[in-house]
Amino acid sequence: MLDSGAKKQILMVEDTASVAALYKSYLNPLDVDVEIASTGQQALDCFSSGHTFSLILLDLRLPDISGFDVLSEIRKHQPEIPVVIMTAHGSIDAAVEALRYGASDFLIKPCEADLLRVTVNNALKPKSKMSGQTPEGSYYGFIGHSVPMQAVYRVIDSAAPSKATVFITGESGTGKEVCAEAVHAASSRAKKPFVAINCAAIPKDLIESELFGHMKGAFTGAASEREGAAEMADGGTLFLDEICEMDLDLQSKLLRFIQTGTFQKVGSSKVKQVDVRFICATNRDPWVEVNKGNFREDLYYRLHVIPLGLPPLRERGDDVVDIAQSLLLMFAMEEGKDFRSFSEGVIQRLLSYEWPGNVRQLQNVIRNIVVLHNGREVTEQMLPPPLSLVSGVKLASSPAISSTHAKIDQVRDSGFSAATVMLKQGVISKADIEPLWLVEKRAIQIAIDACDGNIPQAAGLLEVSPSTIYRKLQSWQESQ
Questions:
Q1: At 104, which CATH number?
Q2: What region holds the Sigma-54 factor interaction domain (predicted)?
Q3: Is residue 444, in this structure, part of any structural domain at all?
């Protein structure tokens, strides 16, 4: 509920009458007065006639003028009024752009009643109550202030106070568990347990036991009664990571658990009830998995209440430098090293690299640098593959090899016919030629690093079978 006092006045600019009426009914429990404008001009007329509003809910797509034009006019004359953008799922980019021009938050239509109420309630709070939670450039474990991340932070702020399920999507390594912990930390359940289960890491025949617990003797190896994640998370948050990997049979039991809050331990007939808030995540497109038959459609609709997409690191601009700086200082402290900064060349490499493994890959790169090198400034020569084709070991033993790789890269880019010319010109000598197994080993290692250790993914990039890579890694290990 809102703070006590006079009713707050809200202007909803929405051209579809049925949608406006529905959203107005959603806001009834907040004890606010909602006025509806069906066009942009009608909304502007409300301001010119002297109406005073505490909040504007603004659809970007209006029949007469653009929502951006309405937002611009509002900001010119009454910049202090919070404006929440309402937009369809396919126009999220436009909503993020609206944040640049003064919108305070956005909602993706169609939206649930809980999410609309929480967003409106947060927008109506005095700014002093919403600021000062975290240092500048950081947010509940996240580092970065790029526009895509600001949008993520706003969704977390809006979703956290509700019990509505948050469905996090994003590439591997983007920080989905960090995001789930942020939702928990920003909620009223912050002092209660946060329990995470990785549905992809637990064997199919054990995941039900991990989730619901088991009785002594329920199966071979069950030597004692065990409490499951659902029971441990009572009063707090249960995070189901890689939810699309869950077995279909268990999905039906999970659906019942979400609907009723009740479950049975494996091997028990006793029904237990708990109060948990669900957050789930996947690096796949959940609707594609529904269409493939890998994910139950009814479970999808039950869980996909507040979608939250995490942007890949390559779309976060200067955030990569901020994250790298934080990791450098942390790892330097752990390893007792003196590193404090990056050279300008390294910063440019960090910004231009695509980061297929996202933040997790960046973390591995920075740790590699700190462990294998010394100094106060990270230089380009210290960068490991794939940012540089020179590994730390090679760099220490043969400083001249980087020029060799440049020459060989030139051959690769120009075509093999150029190799003969370069040999005759003395650009490449016999001493520059490496054994084929070493070239192959380096290519495989670069692919594995680029895929953040995912060997099947690396095999796909190299167009070989995963078993080939496993076999070669084993043979190289045995030969050491």
A1: 3.40.50.2300
A2: 142-371
A3: no
